[in-house]
Amino acid sequence: MKNSGFLRLAERYVTALFDVADKAGALAAVEKDLHRLKLAIEADGELSRVLVSPLMTREQAGRAMQAALSNVGAHDITQKFIHLLAASRRLGALPEVARQFAARVAASRGEVAAEVISAQILPPAELAGIGDSLGKMVGKKINLSARVDESLLGGMVVRIGSQQFDGSVAGKLSRLEQELKKVA
C-alpha cells in the first residue's frame, strides 16, 4: 500500500483535514486521535482487516470505526473525517493519513518527524542521542519515534521526511548483493 497513488490519495485527505482542524484550533486533538487510531489498527489485526475488506459494507466499516473512535474519545472533526473515509471506502488510507498528518502538524510547529527502526529495542539514552544528532544535522527540533524490525538483523534505519539512511546489516547485505550482481 505504499504506491505513489496511495500516497497522493492520503496527501489530499491530509491537506483537507489539516485546513479544517487548523481553522477550528483542533490540530493537536486531531493529531492525537489519529495517532491513537493508528496504534489501535496496528495492534488489532481484525480492525486492520476491516479497513480493507471488500466484503464489509460502508455501514459496517463505519460502525467498526465508531467503536474505535469511542474508545479514544475522538474530537468531532476526527469523527466526521473517519465517517467520510468510511463512506468513500478509503479507511485503508487511515494509517498513512495519520503518519502524514502528524508530519504536517510537526512541520507547522517547525519540527521534523524522524523514525528509527532497529533490530532490537534501543535504550532511551541512545534514542535521545540519536535525536540530538539528527536535530543538529537538520537544524530543527526532532520528533523521534522508534520501532523494532528484527528482519534488519542489526544496525538501524533512520527516516527523516522522505530521506532514509540505511545502516542495517540487512541493508548492507542487500547493497553487497547488488554490487556482486553488477560484477557477475
Commentary on this structure:
- 64% of the residues lie in helices and 14% in strands.
- It has helices at residues 4-23, 27-43, 45-52, 58-72, 76-87, 94-108, 124-138, 169-183, and strands at residues 111-118, 141-148, 156-160, 163-166.
- It is of the alpha+beta class and 184 residues long.
- The protein has a four-stranded mixed β-sheet, with helices on both faces.
- The longest helix is centred in the N-terminal third of the chain and has 20 residues, at 4-23.
What's the structural blueprint in terms of helices and strands?
Layout: H1 4-23, H2 27-43, H3 45-52, H4 58-72, H5 76-87, H6 94-108, E1 111-118, H7 124-138, E2 141-148, E3 156-160, E4 163-166, H8 169-183
Parallel strand pairs: 1-2
Antiparallel strand pairs: 1-3, 3-4
Helix pairs in contact: 1-6, 2-3, 2-6, 4-5
Give a short synopsis of this structure.
With 184 residues, the chain is α+β, with helices and mostly antiparallel strands. 64% of the residues lie in helices and 14% in strands.
- Class of secondary structure makeup: alpha+beta
**How many individual helices?**
8
Secondary-structure arrangement, i.e. CATH architecture of the largest domain: Orthogonal Bundle
Please give the largest β-sheet.
4 strands, mixed
Work out the number of β strands: 4
The CATH superfamily of the largest domain is known as N-terminal domain of the delta subunit of the F1F0-ATP synthase
As for the number of domains, it is 2
Shape: globular
**CATH secondary-structure class of the largest domain:** Mainly Alpha
CATH topology of the largest domain: Peroxidase, domain 1
Helix content: 55-70%
What value does the Rg take, in angstroms? 19 Å
